[in-house]
């Protein structure tokens, strides 16, 4: 996760860089690097989906729901990305082709990673971060923003199973990378490994190389910590709801008993 979500103050800004790397390829690190190079708000999808207001998260669910209605989809994507100068991670990397068309001057950065290490990282994410969708849906129902997680995740699974195949494997990231190469013009695409540091990215964006280490964020640890915080907060909300219902029932019962006694 990328910490506190950026909320653009100038919605006239448009996307200059589309992060096409799949989740767990260093999307947080790339978002931090792009923020440093471009100096404006960058959308890291995971942070936005779990940190923004209810209406914004629902907007992305609407984008998935309208994926076969291109005019509506493009309008939603423009609204959802307005004010950001770059985007990384889900949900935007599920709409790469549409974003490439929507922002014809934007450049695309594809981050690669060893397939086996990537797959191991994805399995940890899915096991620790989501769990049972039915349980998650019930647990997050009273939580604004978070309540939409089961919905957009279900949509994402449908989209990705069509594009990458029904079962995720180490080959999935290779299929994704090939898909990106087939759908993005070569002169707009940079393929890199984060181990290469600032130079290829800065050169591609015509920016000076920063005199500081390339950002390195541990997505896995951050996700596990965040997931625990989400579940803890959701449980507290449910305890408050159930406690309120219990108190209301107790007061109602007391009033009912008093009315019975007074009628005797």
From TrEMBL:
The chain crosses the membrane at residues 235-256. The keyword Nucleotide-binding does not apply. Keywords: Membrane, Transmembrane, Transmembrane helix. PANTHER family: P-LOOP CONTAINING NUCLEOSIDE TRIPHOSPHATE HYDROLASE PROTEIN (PTHR36978:SF3), P-LOOP CONTAINING NUCLEOTIDE TRIPHOSPHATE HYDROLASE (PTHR36978). This is NAD dependent epimerase/dehydratase.
């Amino acid at each position: 996760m990328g910490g506190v979500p950026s909320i653009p103050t100038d919605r006239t800004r448009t996307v200059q860089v589309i992060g096409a790397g799949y989740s767990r390829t260093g999307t947080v690190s790339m978002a931090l690097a792009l923020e440093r190079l471009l100096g404006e708000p960058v959308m890291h999808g995971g942070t936005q989906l779990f940190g923004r207001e209810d209406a914004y998260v629902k907007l992305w669910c609407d984008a998935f729901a309208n994926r076969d209605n291109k005019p509506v989809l493009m309008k939603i994507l423009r609204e959802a990305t307005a004010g950001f100068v770059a985007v990384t991670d889900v949900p935007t990397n599920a709409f790469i082709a549409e974003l490439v068309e929507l922002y014809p001057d934007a450049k695309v950065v594809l981050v690669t990673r060893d397939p086996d290490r990537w797959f191991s990282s994805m399995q940890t994410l899915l096991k620790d971060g989501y769990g049972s969708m039915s349980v998650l849906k019930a647990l997050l129902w009273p939580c604004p923003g978070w309540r939409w997680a089961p919905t957009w995740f279900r949509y994402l699974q449908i989209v990705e199973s069509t594009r990458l195949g029904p079962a995720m494997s180490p080959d999935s990231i290779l299929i994704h990378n090939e898909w990106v190469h087939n759908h993005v013009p070569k002169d707009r695409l940079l393929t890199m490994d984060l181990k290469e540091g600032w130079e290829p990215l800065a050169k591609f964006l015509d920016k000076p190389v920063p005199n500081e280490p390339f950002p390195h964020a541990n997505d896995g640890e951050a996700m596990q910590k965040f997931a625990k915080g989400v579940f803890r907060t959701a449980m507290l909300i449910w305890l408050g709801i159930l406690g309120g219902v219990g108190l209301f029932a107790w007061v109602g019962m007391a009033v009912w008993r008093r009315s019975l006694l007074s009628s005797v």
